[in-house]
Design a protein that fits this description.
1% strand; two-stranded antiparallel ribbon; Sel1-like; globular; 17 helices; binds zinc ion; mainly alpha; MYND-type domain-containing protein; zinc ion binding
């Protein structure tokens, strides 16, 4: 029997030789593609560490401006001056995901409210939907200021812009605002229509992401769906009713960063003073003053930054934990309770 001919082993340096032969603009073009599709920060940053030339071209304005959201999916425990500087470089290159991410981190984690707001506004002005929605949540809560700084009409306007861009969280929030007459004239039927639309879009997104990722819907053991586990933030709350646990495609990486920051990282000490994180595990927004967030009016144990977060957490987890035995008399900032929201059958 003949042995297959042994292929000569390629030297690692061949790769560099190949790249060395390419002109700078072509390498920049390739790196732009890589930065826009990288699935993690390390996937992109490791390229920068390969050699001096890739480091120089990898930090080219065009490459940084194209970096996708996954490139900014940092762990809070890895936060450093280097990461901060990298984000600033991406902001300077005009990257909207970087503006939004650094804006959120500065506003909530570093408590540099003015700078955080201006970065988020920069992204929002260029129609970055998560930034528009985050500014809406800040307006609804008067975050970073006092109760008097709440601007419900501005919050609704920002939500409307983000929902027109197809951002599901904003659509859901707008639906609740119309449904409850919060910051806008009450319109029950329109509110319900938007909530159904938000649910339908979420479902469509989940189904699309599942079919494109090939693994079929994983039907979990019904008994296991009764016990929520830490880390299940990415499970689709809609499908949890039908014991299907499917990843939600729209959880913002910066939300997970903030939760980690305040639960395990440097923010754990700072949060203190009775301030709490939003009860929806995929959110991560902290209160910026005491009693800023709305509280579940049945048990009074959990707090939410928005109606959308409350509705999602109810479906995902809280309906299994909420008990009316310990009713808290003291109201929220705005005296709004959660029971109407979670029991109307639409959300
Ligand atoms: Zn929230
Ligand atoms: Zn409750």
């Amino acid at each position: 029997m003949r042995r297959p001919l042994k292929q000569p082993q390629k030297r690692i340096t061949d790769k560099h030789d190949f790249l060395d032969g390419l002109p700078d603009d072509l390498v920049v073009f390739i790196l732009s593609k890589v930065s826009s599709t990288a699935s993690s920060p390390s996937e992109f940053i490791n390229i920068l560490l390969t050699c001096k030339r890739l480091n120089r071209l990898g930090l080219h304005r065009m490459v940084l401006s194209k970096a996708g959201p996954k490139v900014f999916d940092f762990k809070a425990k890895n936060w450093s001056e280097h990461v901060h500087r990298f984000l600033k470089q991406c902001v300077n290159a005009g990257n909207l995901n970087a503006c939004y991410t650094l804006g959120m981190i500065r506003f909530y984690c570093l408590k540099n409210r003015a700078s955080g707001l201006s970065l988020m506004a920069k992204a929002a002005m260029k129609s970055h939907a998560p930034a528009l929605y985050s500014l809406a949540v800040i307006q609804f809560n008067g975050s970073g200021g006092t109760k008097q700084d709440k601007d419900l009409r501005a919050g609704v306007a920002l939500c409307a812009r983000a929902s027109l861009l197809g951002y599901i969280d904003a659509l859901r929030e707008l639906g609740h605002c119309l449904h409850d007459g919060y910051g806008v004239k009450k319109n029950l039927s329109e509110g319900r229509r938007l909530l159904v639309q938000a649910n339908a879009r979420e479902l469509a997104l989940v189904i699309r992401s599942v079919t494109s990722a090939s693994p079929s819907l994983s039907q979990s053991d019904p008994s296991s769906s009764l016990t929520w586990r830490a880390g299940d933030y990415s499970v689709c709350p809609l499908l949890s009713d039908y014991v299907y646990n499917v990843a939600v495609p729209e959880v913002q990486p910066v939300g997970l960063f903030m939760r980690e920051w305040f639960e395990m990282g440097p923010g754990r000490v700072e949060l203190g003073n009775g301030l709490r994180l939003c009860g929806h595990i995929g959110c991560g927004r902290p209160e910026t003053r005491a009693h800023e967030f709305r509280r579940c009016s049945v048990c009074g144990k959990v707090n939410y930054c928005s109606r959308g977060c409350q509705a999602l957490d109810w479906k995902l987890r809280h309906k299994m934990e909420c008990s009316p035995e310990e009713v808290v008399v003291q109201g929220n900032d705005d005296g709004y309770g959660g029971v109407e929201l979670v029991n109307d059958g639409v959300i």
